[in-house]
Amino acid sequence: MSQTPPLLLVLSGPSGVGKDAVLQGMKTRGLPFYWVVTVTTRKRRLQEHEGVDYHFLPTERFERMRESGELLEYARVYDHWYGVPLAAVRQALTEGRDTLLKIDVQGATTIKDRVPEAVLVFLSPPTTEDLMARLRQRRTESAQQLALRLQKAQDEMGRTHMFDYQVVNDQVEAAIDRILAIITAEKCRTHPRRVRL
Amino acid sequence: MSQTPPLLLVLSGPSGVGKDAVLQGMKTRGLPFYWVVTVTTRKRRLQEHEGVDYHFLPTERFERMRESGELLEYARVYDHWYGVPLAAVRQALTEGRDTLLKIDVQGATTIKDRVPEAVLVFLSPPTTEDLMARLRQRRTESAQQLALRLQKAQDEMGRTHMFDYQVVNDQVEAAIDRILAIITAEKCRTHPRRVRL
User: Fold this and answer.
1) Smaller CB count within 10 Å for chain B: N or C?
2) Range of the domain at B111
3) Residue B154: inside a domain, yes or no?
4) Which of chain A's residues have a Cβ under 8 Å away from the Cβ of B168?
5) Which of residues 147-166 of B touch A (CB under 8 A)?
6) Of B121, B160, B185, the CB nearest to A165
7) What CATH number should be reported for the domain holding residue B74?
8) Type and span of the H or E element at A13
9) Could you read off the pLDDT tens digit of each residue along chain A, which spans 197 residues?
């Protein structure tokens, strides 16, 4: 049904739930989405690549984008800024391409306010305890940063109801199958969501 | 996510579109639905089985069920009556079983009025011309019956918007995959539909 309008799929969930692994798995399957690369002022981690994981920008450049309305959404997360470049999303949708973006919970709910036709998927852990354990295993941050992240993750788990769908990330491949099922179902809707940007 | 409430899935579409083949294919895959068997006053066709395809009832018995409120929905289609036994549907849902019923377009829209939480799937042909060709190939009816059926099918195609989803039956197995995707997506909804009967 190629005549259905393109989807704007927003993949979110608490930090530590495995959003990156799910996204990577979807890319590995060669799925024909337009993958929105968000911009950030935080430092690149060792395994990350510019233009793939994020566009890493100096703070001044980020602020210019924000002030000139070039960001669909932006948010401060811990000490850094993250933003979604509006032009890229608009261009992809205009070309009729299904568009997928990964974003934190706060950002996702902001996008839903601005673009109600976006399809919001909340990736959740099998249990909250499981999420806490995953976060503690991370070695990239200080004890204080970890404590902040644990608190934040718990707050985020309480926002599931603001999303359209909840997908449990018990197994990455099973979670991807569910996300693909959601996309298929959305394309079968008799009243499709038409994104206006 | 076994804690989600059971679905009431209504599979419909114009006559000749291939509802029976899709239903049969789903049964062959061994899917764990409760399959509602509708009751009818029409004669059993050669390849049909009592209690599997329909419960074939004498008109008097059907009328007693209708008058005593034992039918969730009933309709006259051509010269015969069809009805959905309420007790069976209620029982299956109470047991937490996903429940699937096949019904004509008129009946499906009646069920949506009475049970807004039902998930309505409209099985549609690749093209209307394709449907007309399929109907003409049927050998079980008179020329007059065929003319009636062609007109009715065209009317039914105009009611797609009253359904939640439209699934094109280009290939039976592909159509089944889409229906299963819809079921998976419905079970991922953060605000699931809770059927009250």
Assistant:
1) N
2) 8-188
3) yes
4) 1
5) 160-161, 163-166
6) B185
7) 3.40.50.300
8) none
9) 447 999 999 999 998 899 999 999 999 998 889 999 999 999 999 999 999 989 999 999 999 999 999 999 998 887 899 999 999 999 999 999 999 999 989 899 999 999 999 999 999 999 888 888 888 887 667 888 888 888 888 899 999 999 999 999 999 999 999 999 999 999 999 999 999 88
